């Protein structure tokens, strides 16, 4: 009996030692799993989820290492920025899951022309960055860029759809174009934007001149971001007339007056607004401002006036732009039948069927749809029947060529055919850029419906357009044949241009 107690203690101690060893073993296993998970998390943090390629953080590490080696050994390295053209349309069309599937295919193709020691990373939004180590010169980098473009030439498949993709590529090299990672990436981006400005599907190499342009662009973009909140933007209105001289309405045109830069030409700031996506808030403001102004003018006009507003490609591609239009109409009280949205011919033709649904919704509430610059885009006219179009705006280049002395360069037959085609489809024709009496007479003879141009009136600020409207509403000023006397033309004149060229 006396020996039982010590024996019990020995057994309990033995079991405690076993439990302690087991706990230590389990703890070591847990620590090992945690380290493995941490390693995996770290690995995943360096990868882009959709493509499995290195992400921007990983690319930056690789670039820093390459720069240190290049500085030590005197090597030349290159950074390329590959940006898929209009990739947002792919996401809008296929959804993000479908867009990711396309990105995987793009990533696979872009890796094929690269050497084993090169690095390609997906940095989001349809953008890829490429690091080329130990190259001979910038021409060698440009040749790689060309191979990357060629790798994208074959169509991509996403489910039952077949897609054509292109890219804009910016190229820069160390040490010629920059000595650190930040400078090289910024300069590759500048070159890429130049490629986009020139139509996309091309390569541009960074230069000192390009750097100066890039800095100016950044400064102008910074000013443009403040322009809306600082009330520097203003709407002008170019009158449109029926053939008998009656005022039909006006096209709303955006103007920017900067306190230091002065009047910034639309041709300079409109493309910048689209590239920076500032066109979305600016376009929404412009639409609401113009609709509110036109709603007030309807009260003093003896007949309903039509307001024409330009729509940018980014607004068109934005999924809720039709809702923005409907809200602007509701908030300002403008009758939808008094609003005409202008889209360029090439813009409409680039859209798929699903992208055109907002047009049909807007047409259902009464809004009119115009094709601007008609005749300068695609040759296929089948879209005129399948789209809810109400108006064709004849491009000013055809108006200018109406009175050409050379029959081979005269646009008379083309204009006649366009007007006949439009009328057969029950569409209204507005001729842009009317600058001479001879052009006006010819358009009247050919059966055009409305005119717009410097002969009849330049774009006016709101108060000047209102004065014109009041004058025309209270005075009988029309001569026989619908021509306005000279004093009316003086009232309509105001020094300004148009956002896509003077008309």
TrEMBL record:
Residues 217-473 form the EAL domain. CDD domains: EAL, GGDEF. InterPro entries: Biofilm_reg_signaling, EAL_dom, EAL_sf, GGDEF_dom, Nucleotide_cyclase, Rev_trsase/Diguanyl_cyclase. Residues 75-208 form the GGDEF domain. It comes from the Bacteria. Residues 20-47 form a coiled coil. Keywords: Coiled coil. This is EAL domain-containing protein. It comes from Geothrix oryzae.
């Amino acid at each position: 009996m006396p020996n039982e107690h010590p024996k019990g203690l020995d057994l309990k101690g033995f079991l405690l030692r076993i439990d302690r060893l087991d706990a230590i073993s389990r703890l070591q296993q847990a620590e090992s799993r945690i380290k493995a998970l941490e390693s995996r998390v770290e690995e995943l943090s360096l990868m882009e989820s959709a493509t499995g390629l290195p992400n921007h953080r990983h690319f930056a590490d690789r670039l820093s290492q390459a720069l240190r080696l290049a500085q030590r050994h005197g090597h030349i390295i290159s950074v390329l920025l590959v940006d898929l053209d209009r990739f947002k349309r792919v996401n809008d069309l296929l959804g993000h899951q479908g867009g990711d599937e396309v990105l995987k295919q793009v990533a696979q193709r872009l890796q094929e022309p690269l050497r084993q020691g090169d690095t390609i990373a997906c940095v989001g939004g349809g953008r890829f960055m490429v690091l080329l180590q130990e190259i001979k010169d910038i021409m060698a980098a440009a040749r790689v860029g060309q191979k990357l473009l060629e790798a994208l030439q074959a169509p991509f498949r996403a489910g039952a759809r077949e897609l054509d993709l292109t890219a804009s590529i910016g190229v820069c090299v160390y040490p010629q174009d920059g000595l650190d990672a930040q400078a090289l990436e910024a300069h590759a981006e500048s070159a890429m934007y130049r490629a986009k400005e020139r139509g996309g599907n091309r390569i541009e190499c960074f230069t000192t001149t390009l750097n100066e342009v890039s800095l100016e662009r950044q400064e102008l973009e910074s000013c443009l971001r403040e322009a809306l909140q600082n009330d520097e933007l203003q709407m002008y209105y170019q009158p449109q007339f029926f053939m008998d001289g009656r005022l039909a309405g006006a096209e709303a045109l955006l103007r920017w007056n900067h306190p230091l830069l002065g009047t910034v030409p639309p041709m300079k700031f409109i493309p910048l607004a689209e590239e920076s996506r500032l066109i979305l808030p600016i376009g929404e403001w412009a639409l609401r401002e113009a609709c509110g102004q036109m709603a007030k003018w309807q009260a003093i006009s003896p007949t309903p006036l039509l307001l024409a507003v330009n729509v940018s490609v980014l607004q068109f591609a934005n999924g809720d732009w039709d809702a923005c239009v409907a809200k602007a109409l509701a908030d300002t009280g403008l009758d939808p039948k008094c609003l005409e949205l202008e889209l360029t011919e090439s813009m409409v033709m680039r859209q798929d069927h699903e992208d055109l649904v907002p047009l049909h919704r807007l047409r259902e509430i009464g809004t009119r749809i115009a094709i601007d610059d008609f005749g300068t885009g695609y040759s296929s006219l089948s879209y005129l029947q399948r789209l809810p179009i109400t108006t064709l705006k004849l491009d000013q280049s055809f108006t200018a060529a109406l009175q050409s002395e050379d029959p081979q360069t005269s646009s008379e037959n083309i204009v006649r055919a366009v007007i006949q085609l439009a009328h057969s489809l029950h569409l209204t024709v507005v001729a842009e850029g009317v600058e001479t009496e001879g052009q006006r007479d010819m358009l009247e003879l050919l059966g055009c419906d409305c005119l717009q141009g410097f002969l009849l009136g330049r774009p006016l600020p709101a108060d000047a357009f209102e004065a014109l409207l009041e004058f025309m509403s209270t005075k009988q000023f029309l001569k026989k044949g619908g021509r306005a006397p000279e004093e009316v033309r003086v009232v309509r004149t105001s020094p300004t241009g148009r956002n896509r060229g003077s008309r």
